[in-house]
Design a protein that fits this description.
The structure holds three protein chains of three kinds. By secondary structure, chain A is an alpha+beta fold. In chain A, 24% of the residues lie in helices and 35% in strands. In chain A, the strands form four sheets. Chain A has a six-stranded mixed β-sheet, with helices on both faces. A five-stranded antiparallel β-sheet of chain A has the order 13-12-11-14-20. Chain B is built from 15 helices and eight strands. In chain B, a hairpin with an 8-residue loop joins β2 and β3. In chain B, α4 packs across α15, α5 runs antiparallel to α12 and α12 runs antiparallel to α15. The two termini of chain B are 46 Å apart. The chains are: A alpha+beta, B alpha+beta, C mainly alpha.
């Protein structure tokens, strides 16, 4: 098990810059998830750590040792590929044993390790089958097993669940979490699915266009996003973003939102009158109030899921607002409702998208 | 950046910058360099040799480039005289033109000052040479030895055979790709069966068939037997299978006849595959040897390949003509190669796996 | 038929501009000619129906197949069991298995000189020897070249074309190129004498003649098999190599445990294909050595050709009998090829 440290890691392919000066420290035993939209560079970052790509500039250290120019084979890491990359002509057992043979282990040790990993992953019955005789989920477990037997410094996962169907994905997610608890290894996991990130990670690294937007625990990212991008990326359904204009910022922040004025008790943040800001509020933090509330809206659509209800409403001058209510609400299309934003959960983003500090 | 690119070029994934070249990379480049020499070298030697005069070809060891002796005009002499580098008795070396040679002595003059005559032993002189191309090696056979005839025969066979092949192979491929009919399995099997019967084992009976039709010793005897190729049928069929069926059904709704669908819709869309087949057919026909050898016995119907082979059967092979005509024979294929090699190499990559 | 692996599938849109323009120009007269057939074809379709038009499309090709492939096979058998010197079967007396008996009449099959038709058995022996060496050398060098070409090197397309170039040359050209180099006063002997050796008369020595027959044949055909193996190598997914890299696999082990096993099905196809073509060797060897010195490089096909066409007495029957024997061998090999191709669907 090991620590990972990236300093100023950049990667360019020809004229295209994919990673811009990434600084990152992963602690021993941590489960870190790289998450971001397509093309943000998360897979490239993983491959740079693995040694399958070389950094254009910057350094990579594993356990304090500089590995920046070491080839992948010498870094002692294990990777689970998105396509699993199982050797099609070898049985499951041979697939798992292959790396150990390269390491020069004795056959008895190899067998012991393979059997132990197979037991952990419930693959014991399939050890003599070839990959083409296995289901998708089984193949994925073999890919994981191949990594486990290596007892690597760091486990790397490249979107391992993306080829599985929805139900299997949920089940496998739980297994991965259990695996981490049992093995305790340092794991770096790449995904575009923020649900996987939230459920599996000790810490999440949000990437956009080759830069780190924010690093933090799942709840930190959820509760205190540092910019609009992270706020919008984490959390499902997506946070509501409402444009607003500052009226005054002097101990009470007064804003025009749509056709209403709202006042928020907040310490001054140095905003000028007339400045454009964006309010962020998650669907689950919006209430329907019997009184006048903050915004008057009309219900466009109600989606009843049984355990919760999604309400889509519009208010003049604002984009459509999504509300999430517990249980089964009684609203219908066309109803006029008054909504209130829970002040403790209201995020304010300035014109650059950065979050303003909370009082 | 340049060093980055160089190391990226030379070092594969396994080597980061700063790591030395793996020996397998160096070995690979050496191997490839040797390959270029070995594959192109002989052809280059052929071309160079083809421009040497007959006497130059008899030299041993042979010179690399085609040389001819320089000849100069000397005032007072009716013809151009060959130029030599002569070592005179007093040890000096001068360039002299030879007027005549009597026995072991050559009478030579200084081209600049023809009044002065020298007598030089023939072993004390060396020809002065320049690079020169003996283009008569090319023109003479074409004029005197019916090679032009051979050339036109080859062209005729290649073009006509390719056209016929394209037509009937595409029709058969169309039938197998688009229609479901009774006997389709049998027909496909029959085509595969044809693959198992190469020309080499049916030489005699095809000769009989051709003779029965009265085609022996005509170019048609070469064109017809090989026109229906199983490879061509499968190649085109495979490509046609990738065309969307809706096109054909839409055409039927538009009241097109099956024949019209074939040549107005399917064929134009199959052009890439037709191009590949055309290239293959041109190659096969131009290079064909065994069958024409067997069936053509009269010189005037010889194709270029047969003519070339026959030309070397004489007692004293006239290499200077033979080499030149060999170059002529390979020019069309070389042209195809230069312009169309991409088609061929990508086409063969999967064709061979039939 | 699923046992036929996909044949070439050129991508749409790969026509270069020149080729497309050429195609468009060529199409015009052809289109005009085909248009002429519209009315009769339409009439035909009305008579027999759209579905049966398939037979019309098949007809020309199958007429050719019938006349020039299937019928000849039958005639071959007829020829092999009839004797005499006439070309037309009706004029040939039936002799049953006599010609086969004559062909197979040998003191010892391993020594051609003990056979009545010694040239045939010499041809068989030579072809066997030739095939063993040629196929081995061919597959070996094609494999090495394909592996080298598969590495990430600049100018891969150029080098691929370089190795493929001799494949395009006609056998006559190939043979003459090398004949010229191997002359008594040719390039090779020049090199040898410059290095201090003695001139070698390659075409007078039977072993040398056979060596060069093999060499020239490999030189001319290697590129073709290299391409097939290269395609097979490129079909191996790249992330298998990455996984092997993560598994810290040394290069030689990647080659032996991953690349070659996954390439093996392609190699079998290549080997059988080379065997089939090797058994039919004629063109280059004939022009290069004429079968000589003596009969040292006489191949089976040359025997058939000479027996039927170029000897004083044209013995069609015997040639047909020999063709039948060769045909049986090729048939077995082709079945092997289909079996190999089917195994490829791993």
């Amino acid at each position: 098990m090991a620590e990972l440290k990236l300093t100023g890691a950049s990667k360019s392919f020809g004229n295209i810059d994919v990673l811009h000066g990434i600084d990152l420290a992963v602690k021993d035993g941590e489960f870190v998830v790289f998450v971001g939209p397509s093309g943000c560079g998360k897979s490239t970052l993983l491959r740079v750590i693995a040694g399958l790509e070389n950094v254009t500039s910057g350094e990579v250290h594993i356990d304090g040792e500089r590995v920046t120019h070491l080839p992948a084979s010498d870094r002692g890491l294990a990777m689970v590929f998105q396509s699993y990359a199982l050797y099609p002509h070898m049985s499951v057992r041979r697939n798992m044993a292959f790396a150990l043979e390269n390491m020069g282990l004795k056959p008895k040790d190899i067998e012991a390790r393979v059997d132990r990993a197979a037991a952990m992953l419930r693959l014991t019955d399939y050890l003599d089958r070839k990959p083409k005789a296995l289901s998708g989920g089984q193949r994925q477990r073999v890919a994981i097993g191949r990594a486990i037997v290596r007892d690597p410094k760091i486990f790397l996962f490249d979107e391992p669940l993306s080829n599985l169907d929805a139900e299997l994905r949920v089940a496998t997610r739980k297994e991965l979490a259990a695996l981490h608890a049992e093995l305790g290894g340092t794991m770096i996991y790449v995904t575009h699915d923020q649900v996987e990130a939230m459920t599996l990670a000790d810490r999440i690294v949000v990437l956009k266009a080759g830069r780190i937007e924010q690093i933090g625990t799942p709840l930190e990212l959820y509760n205190h996003p540092q910019n609009a991008f992270v706020a919008g990326f984490i959390g499902s359904p997506r946070m509501n973003f409402l444009p607003a204009a500052v009226i005054a910022d002097d101990g009470t922040l007064r804003l025009t939102v749509g056709d209403r004025e709202i006042a928020l008790p907040r310490a001054a943040s140095g905003l000028k009158a007339g400045a454009a800001v964006t309010l962020g509020i998650r669907p689950e933090h919006i209430d329907v109030t019997p009184d006048a509330g903050m915004i008057a809206a009309t219900v466009d659509l109600v989606e009843q899921l049984g355990g919760e209800t999604f309400i889509y409403a519009s208010a003049p001058g604002l984009p459509q607002i999504t509300l999430r209510q517990h249980g089964q609400s009684r609203f219908n299309r066309g109803d006029a409702i008054a909504i209130r934003f829970a002040p403790d959960h209201l995020h304010i983003f300035d014109a650059t998208g950065a979050a303003l500090a909370r009082p | 950046m340049a060093t980055m690119r160089l190391t990226a070029l030379l070092g594969q994934r396994r080597n980061g910058p700063g790591r030395p070249l793996h020996w397998t990379d160096i070995a690979a480049y050496v191997y490839l360099a040797l390959g270029v020499v070995l594959m192109f070298g002989p052809v280059l030697w052929l071309v160079l040799s083809s421009f040497k005069t007959q006497s130059a070809l008899l030299e041993f060891p042979p010179s690399f480039l085609p040389f001819a002796q320089v000849e100069v005009t000397v005032p007072g002499q009716p013809q151009k005289l060959p130029l030599f580098r002569a070592t005179l008795p007093d040890g000096s070396v001068r360039e002299l033109a030879q007027v005549r040679r009597i026995g072991l002595i050559a009478q030579m003059v200084d081209p600049a000052d023809p009044s002065q005559q020298f007598r030089v032993a023939i072993d004390k002189r060396e020809p002065v040479r320049r690079v020169a191309l003996a283009t008569e090696n090319y023109s003479e056979p074409l004029q005197r030895f019916a090679f032009l005839r051979f050339l036109s025969n080859s062209v005729f066979v290649t073009v006509i055979a390719t056209l016929i092949t394209l037509l009937i192979n595409s029709m058969a491929a169309y039938a197998l790709a688009v229609y479901n009919f009774r006997g389709k399995q049998a027909a496909t099997l029959a085509v595969i069966g044809t693959l198992m019967i190469p020309m080499t084992i049916i030489l005699v009976p095809v000769y009989l068939v051709v003779t029965e039709f009265g085609l022996a010793n005509s170019l048609w005897a070469v064109i017809l037997p090989g026109a229906a190729t199983p490879t061509g049928v499968f190649l085109l069929r495979q490509y046609m299978l990738t065309l969307p069926k809706d096109l054909i059904e839409a055409a039927r709704m538009d009241k097109a006849s099956e024949w019209q669908i074939y040549w107005r819709i399917v064929m134009p869309l199959t052009l890439p595959a037709l191009a590949v087949l055309a290239i293959f057919s041109i190659m096969w026909r131009w290079n064909e040897f065994l069958w024409p050898l067997a069936v053509l016995t009269k010189t005037e119907v010889y194709t270029l390949q047969i003519g070339l082979n026959a030309f070397q059967g004489e007692l004293q092979t006239q290499w200077h003509y033979l080499l030149a005509m060999t170059v002529v024979t390979l020019i069309p294929i070389a042209l195809v190669f230069v312009f169309l090699q991409r088609f061929i190499t990508t086409g063969i990559g999967s064709t061979g796996m039939k | 038929m699923s046992d036929i692996s996909p044949v070439a599938r050129p991508e749409r849109g790969t026509d270069t501009g020149a080729l497309a323009r050429l195609g468009q120009v060529a199409v015009l007269p052809v289109g005009a000619a085909l248009r002429l057939l519209d009315p009769p074809m339409q009439w035909l379709q009305r008579v027999i129906g759209a579905r049966r038009m398939a037979y019309v499309f098949l007809l020309p090709n199958f007429v050719f197949f019938g006349l020039f492939v299937f019928l000849p096979i039958g005639i071959n058998v007829v020829f092999s069991v009839t004797g005499g010197t006439a070309l037309f079967p009706s004029q040939r007396p039936y002799v049953g298995g006599e010609q086969f008996a004559y062909l197979f009449d040998c003191g010892s099959y391993l020594d051609p000189s003990t056979c009545r038709e010694d040239h045939f058995w010499r041809g068989v022996a030579n072809t066997a020897k030739f095939v063993v060496f040629q196929v081995t050398a061919m597959v070996l060098f094609s494999l090495i070249t394909a592996l080298v070409l598969n590495m990430k090197i600049r100018g891969r397309g150029f080098f691929r074309a370089v190795y493929f170039f001799p494949v395009l040359l006609s056998p006559v050209v190939v043979a003459l190129i090398w004949k010229w180099i191997l002359q008594r006063d040719g390039l090779l002997n020049a090199a040898i004498t410059t290095l201090g050796g003695q001139k070698i008369l390659f075409f007078v020595d039977p072993s040398w003649a056979m060596f060069w027959a093999v060499f020239v044949s490999v030189w001319a055909h290697m590129g073709f098999y290299t391409l097939i193996l290269l395609a097979g190598l490129q079909a191996i997914p790249a992330d298998l190599y990455e996984a092997a890299e993560m598994d810290a696999t040394p290069r030689w082990r990647v080659l032996i445990r991953i690349t070659l096993p996954l390439l093996w099905p392609n190699m079998i196809v290549v080997i059988v294909l080379a065997l089939i073509k090797g058994a039919q060797t004629f063109d280059e060897v004939f022009v290069l050595t004429g079968g000589g010195p003596g009969t040292a490089t006489l191949m089976v096909v040359q025997y058939i050709y000479e027996t039927a066409f170029s000897s004083q007495v044209q013995n069609f029957g015997l040639a047909a009998a020999a063709s039948v024997v060769l045909g049986v061998v090729l048939f077995v090999l082709t079945l092997l090829q289909f079996a190999a191709a089917r195994r490829k669907e791993v």
